[in-house]
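Example is below:
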Amino acid sequence: MDPIFPKFSRGVRQRLSTVQRSSPTQPSSPNRINKLNKRPPAPAPKPPPRWPVWVLLGGLVLGALLVFHPGFNNSTTRDFSYSAFVSEVTANKVSTATISSTGVVTGKLANGVAYTSQLPTALNDNALSPLLLKHKVQVTGTNSSSFSVASLIFSLWPFLLLVGLFIWLARRGRKQLGGIMSIGRSKAKLYDEERPSTRFADIAGYEGSKAEVMEVVDYLKHPQRYAQAGAVGPKGVLMVGPPGTGKTLLAKAVAGEAGVPFFALSGSSFVEMFVGVGAARVRDLFSDARKHAPSIIFIDEIDAIGGRCGPGGFGSNDEREQTLNQLLSDMDGFEPGASVVVMGATNRAEILDAALLRPGRFDRTVEIPLPNQKERTAILAIHGRNRKLGPDVDLDVVSRGTPGFSGADLANLVNEAAINAVRDGRDVLSASDFAAARDRLLIGRRDGSNALLPEEKHSVAVHEAGHALVAALSEHADPVAKVTILPRGQALGVTEQLPEAERHLYRQSYLTDTLAVRLGGRAAEIIVLGEPSTGAANDLAGATDLATRMVREWGFSAEVGPIGYGPEGPSRDNPFAGRPYAEETQRSIDREVATLLREAESRATTLLRTNLDTLGRVVDLLLERETIDGSDLAAIVGVPERHAEPEMVWAPQAVAMTPSGAEQDGAGRSNGKSHAG
């Protein structure tokens, strides 16, 4: 019964999660901008090569030659000594004899069995010939130097087989790996004649980001317009945003819109176990780009090679640093007039080397944040085009209930809704399908076998009612959207809150109310049941983390003062770093955190004791229905139901305001929250 609470960052929306994902410092799941799937039909597969058939036929012929070779089937041939051979001739058991110049005798016996023998040529026996004629043996002489094609093939076939196998492996290796001599060749894929079908019109929202990227395409198409004004196009554009927010999709749109060659590859394509291979591939890549100028190079996940160089020794990587140095040299050493633009994408811009980000290399940084409510509605509309939506489906309502979602989450949401409809034997998606899909993604699958004992069910109802009632009675807390005591995933119950508007800044009053709501479930257990339970473990962890950041990073403490300490512990630049403050400061922080938590618990306890009858009615209603919504809670509490306000999409930003710690490390993603019981 551990609540999952909001996370705080600039322009980032909250999303629900299960108990395991309840930490306020955990970022929301990766997403990307979505577009309508408009893919050309796949080309027909090439017919299989015919050389394996010829190899098979050749093997059959060779096998036949081996089988029918005279010396192949010698399992029934008898081998006689000279004396035994003479005895066999004397007994009239020999029918034929073929004698070679070296004294080798072969032939057949009277019963048809083949035999072999060796004449002692050193004895120069002249009595053998009359003996053979006397006993009517058909004698034939052969020359040992006679040539036989079958014998030659039989003797050389192992060598020929090895040579053929080596040639086949060499051709296969050259086809798949490009040969051992091409290890330093660039692995970039060139889009020239066959470009992706993605266009900027296929991307919903992000008009500002698309405008900045489109200028690069326009510069390469019409460089004379910029030259007349004395403007120089950017040499590099770096797209930065959370994982999956559409950076690669924007690059595909650039490849589809640009009328110039487009080289695309990943940062990991440069990394190999051999030192120097990455630098060679960078040189080859830029050499090809200059030959096709004007052109665009897109490096996805550029942080794989563009991270800060280590201090040397500990943590250094010679191969990656050599690759980075070659990239820096090529980006700043373009030949005059060579119109080559480098585009990079990363979700870890903070670890990139400063030399890579300076003007002259990456001149422009394009921020690609998670979409706001208006953009989420547009993305949902794109993914709903090819699906049948029922009349009760309101995409505005769905987008409001998905703060913190971006394109991939929304695509997955629509797909899960379609799967839920198919499960019920329908092909039309209803609002209930979207609600079930949302709960499935954020809270977990509803498992009917995970039944609670009656006393456990009552404890969960008390816990969730405490969260919901404190949220409803707190002036600055987000309104409650739904409360359920049905177990889902690892959560035994959930209290879901959705923001009235998507916030970008969080006041101290909002955070203190958030702490009280977090501890409302534990306070309700103490009041009603007389003791707390382990279900509040996640509540306490989340509240402690939030209170710690309020004191240590956001300056919400009179004792510690308006001081903001960065993240403590080792970092990339200083792997041996410890706390950035003294031990006495740590004690002050601990005291202030404990004070904030005690005050929040005391406030939650006071609200619940004052409204004890209301708490009992909420518990009874939860036990009766198992799931209630915000309107049911507002009717019991007697407060007006709060609704979402119109979103300010282009709200002005504060001047000279640095991002908070939450914005820098991804802690606290959004406004909406849920308390997973």
